[in-house]
Each structure stands twice: as C-alpha cells, then as structure tokens.
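Researcher: I'd like a structural prediction for the single chain below. Treat it as a standalone chain; there are no partners to consider.
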Amino acid sequence: MTLTPWQVIHAIGLGAASARQGAGRGLAEHWGSLRYSQALEANRGGYLQLSAEGRDLLRFYKATQSGEIGTGFASLLAEHVVRTRYPDHSVSVIPADVALKAGWTLRSSTGKGSRPEPLQRRPHFFVEAWQPGQPSKVLLVSSKGTHSALHQVYRQLATASAHVESVDIGPYNTVPYLLIDTEIPTKESLAVHMLEAPGKTILSPPGGEPGADLDLTLEDANRVAEVMRPGERNGVETVPGFQVLPESFAWFSVVLARTEAATLTAFTGGGKPTAQYLTKEQGRRHFQYDVQANTHKLRDEEHRIHDIDFVGTDHIFRLNGNRVETFSGLKRNLYMHLREGQVNEYRREVHALRGQWPDHNTSEKWDSVSIRADGSVMAIRLRGE
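Model: Treating it as a single chain, here is the predicted structure.
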C-alpha cells in the first residue's frame, strides 16, 4: 500500500468522531488525531517511520500513540483488502463499539463500569462491502499496536482473537475476521502484521424478505448478550457474547449504514445531523446540541478542492509556533443527503462515484489533502500570522 501520514490521520479521525471517548464531546473527538501530524515521516526508502518528535514520548503516552496509530493503519488495510476482493462494491469501515450499542447495553447492569468478561473485549471495526439494494458482506477487524519488539506483536495478535470471538453474525464461529497489529519500532520502518480467518458472511434476510430501508430511524434493541453455540451431544448452549441471527440481518444492515452516517456527519461537524442517526445508548444526547464554543462556526465552511465542493468545519491551532488550519468535511451534495436523513440516497450517489475520486495529496491551496471514497476530506495548510 502507498499511504501518506495525513491519510492515516484522516482514518484515525473518522474512527474517533462518533465514539465520544473523552470529556470533549462531538466534534472535539476527532481533532485528537491531529496530535500525530508530526509523529510520522518517510525514511530514505519511502517507508513510514516515527519522526524524532514521535519517538520523544513519555512512557505512559506510548501505549496511546501505538493504539491510535494502529487503528488508523488497521482501518486503511482492512478497507484495502476488502475493496480488492470486491471491486464492484463500496466499502465502509464502521466503529464496532458504536454499532453494537444499538443492540446491546455495553455497560454493567448498575450503569457503572464495563460488562464482565468476555463482553469487555470487542472488535474495533465492522467492514461492510455493499451495493445499493443488495445484501452486504461483513467481516470483523481487531486492531492492536506496539512500540515493542516482534515478540509483543505475536502476543497482541493472540489476544486480539478474543476481541473478534465475542461477536457472531449468523451461526456460531462462521464470521470472517482480520487481526491487524501495527509494529512501530523506534528507528526502523513501521510494519503491519495481519492474520485472517477466511469466509463470507452475507446479510441476506431469510425467506426472501425485502431488503433494509436505511432511512429507518432506530431505537435501542436491548438484546440479551449471549451466543448460541453447539453443545455436547448435539445440544445447544449459550455463552456470553453478541450474536446477530439471520432474522435480524435487515436490522443490522440499518445499524451499520446509520452508524456510518453518524460517523461522517460527526467528522463534518457533529450536532443534530449526527444525533438523528444514533440511539440513546449510542450517545444521541451528546450530539443533540452543538457543544463547542462558537457554535455558529460549525458546518459552515465551504472549500473547493480538486473541483469538488466540500462543506464542513475548520480548526486553527498552533504547531511548534506555526499557525495550522485543518478542514474536515464531506462532498456538499452527499452531506445534504445525510443532513436530511437520506441514507439510501447517500449510498446510491456515493456508490455511483466509486473510482472517480482524485488521489492527489496536495492541492493549489492546501499543503496536504486526503479524500476518501466515502466522500469525506481532510485538508491541512499553514497559515500566516
């Protein structure tokens, strides 16, 4: 794969945009990806490695850096693998925790802390290969990252298997998955390791039922967190986990599409356009209002990049004394579809644009540009005083 550091930052930002991981809600979540704008650089051979600034970390921060950079590479690699296998499909990478909350309560029964093991370990992403009006193909992705040596990669890949084993789509132990670990050594090039459980899971509703209406508003399903698996002597037993059975495939298709819509609108500016796609457990209330200062500045920026009109939000910050502007947005007409709740129309149009997006890394007015097949953009440039 040929990548730029800002493509990785873009992927990290999308993964965090709807996750409400910290005290800063909504739009603030994805700006954390910009902390890595000087962490990666190319060596003489053109391979990505840590920069001097990326290596100069306190010990407690290294785990955060390796984990978050790892999710960026895992997202991009998984998307690349699935897109290569299904070139006539569009591919979406969807944060698994956010999607699962539409069906299951991931907190403890007291509302404090996490659920007991093994429910604490969950995949990081669902990767969905889809065509408008057709059943989707789905696989799971678990992501790890380490600054340590190769032996730690092997240990992390082993523990990553527990994350994907907590989710079943269809019969027990049939859903395909990828385990991806990003090795970030101090001086050498980055290396990405991947293990695969092959297979194919298709979200085909049973009995010829009609396909899913992606514009359908969802509420929390409050399902029981258990998986049915074969037991002794041809019996069936239940174990803790998250299982989507065939009669729920249409529902799960809606969950995936609307979670992706929430991720894109959160990346673009958050607020009410995002809240409409989330259930209460998924964090709808955190997006009901524009929680940033200068709320009139959200989703009001428009930039024309490579002859495409994008709408979104910009952010100006200091980086080693320099003023830097970053813009995150979505192609204007695609954003308008999602703002109006038209997920079906968004998917029809973005699928028709497949293969037409420019792959230039810079533009006339921006120093760094990343445009993804979902229609989102991240652009970065230096600003004068």
